[in-house]
Specification:
The chain has one domain (2-305): Alpha/Beta hydrolase fold, catalytic domain (Rossmann fold, 3-Layer(aba) Sandwich). It is 41% helix and 22% strand. The chain has helices spanning 50-57, 77-82, 84-87, 95-113, 125-136, 159-166, 175-182, 186-189, 193-202, 217-225, 227-236, 258-264, 283-286, 288-305, and strands at 2-9, 16-23, 32-39, 63-71, 118-123, 141-147, 171-172, 204-207, 210-213, 245-250, 271-276. α4 crosses α5, α5 crosses α11 (227-236) and α7 (175-182) runs antiparallel to α9. The longest helix is centred in the middle third of the chain and has 19 residues, at 95-113.
Length: 312
Amino acid sequence: MNTVRRVFDGSRVGQKIAANIYTPLIPHKAAKQFTLLLTHANGFHKELWEPTLERLFGSQSGWSIAQAIALDGYNHGDSAILNRDSIKGETESPWFLNARDILSVIGQLKAPNHMQTIIGIGHSWGASSLLLAEILSPSTFQSLIITDPVLFQKPARNEKLREMTMKRRCEWSSEKDARDYFEPHAFFKLWDKRILNLHIQHGLEHVADKWVLKCRPTNEAAVFAGAFEASPYATNKLPEVKCPTLFLTGETSLPSPPHYIKLITKDMVDCRHVVMDGVGHLLLHEDPDRTADYYADFLDKLALELPASANL
C-alpha cells in the first residue's frame, strides 16, 4: 500500500485530526470503487488497521478500494500529539466529539472533489462513533461495518475501567524496554505479532529521555467516562440507521456478546450480524486477516446490491 499522512481540522476550533490515507500500489479497476473511512478502538491508533487493509486490498474482485482513510481520535495517536495542550486536563471525552470529528473530516474530503458518501469501518469506540455520526447526520455513509461496538442500553460511567486505566503503565526507558513489557504480557499475547509491532512502533512517542504512550491513561480513561450519554443514545437510535450495516462481533466479547447485539439490532431495516468464532472484543487485533475476510465477504455482497453507477 501507498501511505500519505494528512491532517484535518477537528470539529472544535484549533483541534486537529491526523490521518493516514492508503491507496493500492497497483490500482485495481472494478465497476464499484469504494472509499473507506476507518476509526479505531479506545486506547489505540490508526496504524493498527494496516494488516487488515493489506488483506482487504488483496481481496478486491468485483469491487476495488480507491482509498482508505484511517483516523486517529483527537486524543489518540498522532492527533494527541497535535492536540496535547487542549487535552491535558480532560476528565471526560463524550463520544459525540469523536462522531463530530468524523463528520468534520468527511466534510473536508467532500469539499474539493464532491466525493460521494463513503463506507465507514469502525472498531469498538470507533464503531460506536460511526453509528453516532450516521445518526446525527443521516445518509453520511453508503454502508457501515461495525466491529464489536460498545453499546449500552442505559447510561454507565465505566468507573472500574477508568480506575484500571489510570493505573496502567505508560512510559518506558527505551523502545526495547517497552517491547520487553508488552510481549510477555497476558493481554497482548493474544494479539497478532504484526499488530503488536505496529502498536509499539506507532503507539509511543519519544519525550525527553522516555518512550510514552501517545494516548495517555488520562485520555483513555476520559473516553471510557464519555460513554455515559452517547453510548445509550446510539443504542436507542439504531433503528434510524438505514444504510446496509454489518455487525461483526467476537464470540467471547464481553462488551458485545452475540446475544445482546442480536437483541439491540432486531429493529434495524438493513442489518447483518456475523459472529467471529474463537475471538473476543479485540478480534481486529487477534486475527486481522480473518477480520478482513469477513469485511471482504460483506463488500462482495454490497457491490452486487449497489447500482452500477455507484462509486463510493
